Amino acid sequence: MEEGPALTRGRDGTGIDGLDALIEGGFQERKAYLICGEPGTGKTTFCLQFLLKGLGQGEPGVYVTIDEKPSHLIEDAQSMGWDLAPHLDRKELLILDASPYFTNLRLGKERELDVRQIVSDLGKHMKSLGARRLVIDPVAPLIFKEEGQAVVMEYIRSLIFSIEDNLGCTALFTSHMVTGSERLSRFGVEEFIVSGIVLLRIVRAQNRYIRTLFVRKMRGTALDLTEYSFDIVRGRGIVLRQAV
Ligand SMILES: Nc1ncnc2c1ncn2[C@@H]1O[C@H](COP(=O)(O)OP(=O)(O)O)[C@@H](O)[C@H]1O
Ligand SMILES: [Mg+2]
Predict the structure, then answer these.
(1) Across all residues in the chain, what is the average pLDDT?
(2) 41 alpha carbon to ligand 1 midpoint, in Å?
(3) What pLDDT, on the 0 to 100 scale, is given for residue 155?
(4) What residues does ligand 1 touch, defined as CB less than 6 Å away?
(5) Which terminus has fewer CB within 10 Å in the chain: N or C?
(6) Which residue has the CA at smallest separation from atom 8 of ligand 1?
(7) Which residues lie closer than 8 Å to 201 by C-beta, 6 or more apart?
(8) CATH number of the domain where residue 173 is located
(9) What stretches in the chain show pLDDT beneath 70?
């Protein structure tokens, strides 16, 4: 009997040197992924590389920042040797500051976030660019205390679902991992919903610290569960090295 065509989704290259080979070519198209790690582990660098990879092959992208001003992101990219200005000028890259959506919630003026409004606004921006890649860094802001958690969990859940259902893009969400904690994401829901999880860490190895990357979950993909060390190199960003 002849075999039919494999029903596999197309893959989007991650832009990280050495990573695509470990995950059957990249992230599955139009799926959502979580990039987890403590501050300084390289999440923003990872996301920038992902968008730059798309831009390099004619795929526009949108970067949503919440805890960081767009101007800071542009400066950070500059320090890595990446000039975002031409992409912004050509309107193939858009950086959006989503913090206003959270302001009233933080001030206690509103009890819930209107995720449909957020996704609808985001959708309009993405459509105007023809965006194929989306980054939301971080998926939930740092500002919430315990009492805000139920609201934020519901927001994250519906945000991820409606982005996968409605926006037709491959999306990365970042999540702060609490220092010293085994929990990957701050609220614990993101891990279950997304199609894959990449964990970035800084770990002690003998008398020094090294950066590591571990693909913890990737639906539809055979994983070897090896943790790799990596460097952050100006001009190249995250560069995978050997297994640790
Ligand atoms: N120009 C650069 N060259 C090499 N490494 C850099 C450069 N700029 C930043 N880094 C490294 O990248 C790290 C920050 O990564 P970042 O992606 O911002 O982390 P996160 O978003 O997880 O907080 C810094 O702590 C620094 O070590
Ligand atoms: Mg960051």
Answers:
(1) 88
(2) 7
(3) 81
(4) 37, 39-45, 79-80, 232, 234
(5) N
(6) 80
(7) 37, 38, 41, 211, 212, 213, 214
(8) 3.40.50.300
(9) 1-8, 106, 111, 142-149, 178-189
Q: Which domain holds residue 156?
A: 11-243
Instruction: Tell how far the Cα of 74 is from the centroid of ligand 1, in angstroms.
Output: 13
Nearest residue CA, atom 16 of ligand 1?
A: 42
Distance 210 CA to ligand 1 centre (A): 13
Cα–ligand 1 centroid distance for 111 (angstroms): 35
Per-residue pLDDT tens for 146-190?
556 677 777 888 888 889 888 899 999 998 876 556 666 666 667
Compute the distance between CA of residue 68 and CA of residue 59 in angstroms, rounded to an integer: 24
Question: Is 4 within the bounds of a domain?
Answer: no
Which distant-in-sequence residues (6+ apart) come within 8 Å of 215 by Cβ?
A: 19, 22, 23, 196, 197, 198, 199, 223, 225
- pTM for the model stands at 0.92
Query: What is the spatial distance between Cα 127 and Cα 155, in angstroms, rounded to a whole number?
Result: 22
Instruction: Pull the structure tokens for residue 219.
Output: 């639906």
| Bridge partners, 237 (sequence order) | 233
Q: Is 162 among the domain residues? A: yes
